[in-house]
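I hope you will forgive my troubling you with a question about protein structure. I should value your view on which stretches of the chain appear to form regular backbone elements. Here, with my thanks, is the record as I have it:
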Amino acid sequence: MPARYSRTQIILHWAVTGLIAVQFLAHDGIEAAWRTYASTGIADPGPGATLHIVFGLAVLVLVVWRLALRVTHGAPRRTGGHPLAARAAGIGHWALYGLMLLVPLSGAAGWFLGAAAAAEAHEVLKTLLLIVILGHLGATLVHRFWLRDGVLARMLPGG
């Protein structure tokens, strides 16, 4: 197991973080386009919807790449702490990966296939993703400011 994440893994982590942040903050365009589609049956995405779709597909591609790197290059070993905390970290990371795959897949199925059930699942899954992201952020802050164990440095450039 490596001592820290590879440069590519770090770049992908922060790229996906940025893309997801934009998705949450700038989602009005896709919501308006979906409402129009749902009421008229006409898919007419404006620039905001197009950006959401492109960024969502980018998240999907980058997360698949991240998973491939995790399988081929591994991830740093979890250090110390209570075994339950280590288990929670593992569950949290795999929940993040799963949701980062399912959210864009459900969004794509909703948009490109007109699958209303997928679009509804997308809404629920994005809320779950936000909750898991907030948990991940909270755990990061605990590691940085309370435990001071250097876990965050493994995901920072030059850390």
In short: DSSP finds five helices and no strands in the chain. The mean pLDDT is 92.
